[in-house]
Amino acid sequence: MLYFEDALWIRENFWKDTIGTLYFVLGFTGIAFHLILISILPEIANFITRPTVLILSAQLLACIVQLFVVFVPVPAMIAVNQPYFVNPVMINVPAFILVLSQTFSFIFIMINGAHRSVKSVSPRVSKIIFLDNVIFGIMIVAFGFSFFFTVNICARTTIRRFNPSKLNWTLQYFEVISYIYLIVLVIIPTLTTHLIALSELSYRKLFQKPLEESEEEDENASSRETICSLSFYAIFDILFCFWISLSFLSSVPILSLSNVFLTAYWPLLTALTLDIHIRSALIYRIRGVFQSANSPIVIQPNKKEAKFSKF
Q1: What is the β-pairing status of strands 168-170 and 161-163?
Q2: N or C: which end of the chain has fewer CB within 10 A?
Q3: Residue 118 — φ and ψ, nearest 5°?
Q4: CATH architecture group of domain 8-278
Q5: Secondary structure element (H or E) that encloses residue 94, with its range
Q6: What are the residue boundaries of the structural domains of the chain, listed by start?
Q7: What's this model's pTM, rounded to 2 decimal places?
Q8: Which of 295, 290, 297, 263 is nearest to 62 (CA)?
Q9: What is the pLDDT of residues 167-221, one digit of tens each?
């Protein structure tokens, strides 16, 4: 009997330790990688457009906020077995900031998809539409909508709370339905712009012929690469929305964890997977960090300085 109770205690604590460690490690690692990626954006500004830099920066900052409000509070709540962090008065603060930043990220997934599609069809039109002031205005509108969305959830029902005993986020029905509507609102315009861009690029490739043979080879290669890239973006966006919807409808701890971290990691994963400039710059930066850490620091004396006597 004692052995059975000990085994049950070890099993329960194993899952608590595992989930708590995952929240801390994934949160800390995600914050570090997002900060590194933000720091290298000015270095590759000549290879990616300015609207891409602004949109990606907004997404990464929102993801950092998401990770910041879970990577310490959730392990702390698991450790003390309480549904609040530090003080019962702050029981809804982490969830409020999390929902606010998640909603902002969802909106910018749609903005990023529209920008990619327009840029693939016509980079010049993309620069005209996505001006700096336009993107800053979109940021303000997105933040206002996210704030209203979050406050509406708080006013209608209890916002999500982390349950230390079940190791998941407890969502009320109204919040789940609201997020499902939001995901549908995000994915439909995104897929529509992707389909329009793919149709336009396919039409150009099939029916429009360039004047010279060398120009034809270059255009075929670039159009083929652009079509493949847009297709992958569309597939990834569909899979992302499907998995996020599934995580909202399920109370399994792993799916609840993926609800937080998949949204926070999504801009980073798509940028590294489908943009060679960002991927190369990040690899170069990480390699430089490890090389500088492994190389010894040698301080050589300055020969021009005057030598003092020992006495």
Answers
A1: antiparallel
A2: C
A3: -65, -40
A4: Up-down Bundle (1.20)
A5: helix 93-121
A6: 8-278
A7: 0.82
A8: 263
A9: 888 888 999 999 999 988 888 888 888 888 888 888 777 776 655 554 444 444 4
